[in-house]
Design brief:
Layout (H helix, E strand, L loop, with lengths): L5 E3 L5 E3 L6 E5 L7 E8 L6 E3 L8 E4 L10 E9 L8 E5 L6 E5 L6 E8 L1
């Protein structure tokens, strides 16, 4: 595998160099039958998202889309899963790299989503 490209800060925001994009993200050990139903990113205070391409098996996605993001951009990355699982289960979404940096944790079994702020440098 490759070295990780994202770095979380003390506030939980993720930092990534524009030149390092795109990155591949995946569910880390999801329960059987759980897949990604939606992955997209939004500019702050926007209701219009840009979808991230999902893998055929629904276990990973590419952030950002092929259009990329410029240095200085800040976006909210949103991931939702589908499938049945124990609602107290926490599903980490990680960067697919050597140390698998945790990008966010899907901890609400009812809404089945999580988001993280990504700052492109």
């Amino acid at each position: 595998m490759a070295p990780c490209k994202t770095t979380p800060d003390a506030n939980g925001n993720l930092h990534v160099a524009a030149a390092a994009l795109p990155i591949t993200c995946k569910l880390n050990n999801p329960p059987n039958g759980v897949t990604i139903s939606e992955a997209e990113y939004f500019a702050p205070n926007s209701n219009t998202g840009t979808p991230c391409p999902l893998a055929v098996d629904g276990q990973s996605f590419t952030f950002p889309d092929a259009g990329g993001l410029p240095s200085g951009a800040t976006v909210n990355l949103f991931v939702r899963v589908k499938g049945s699982y124990d609602p107290v289960t926490v599903i980490p979404v990680v960067e697919n790299c050597d140390n698998q940096t945790v990008l966010m944790r899907i901890a609400d079994g009812k809404s089945k989503y999580a988001f993280a702020t990504v700052e492109v440098e």
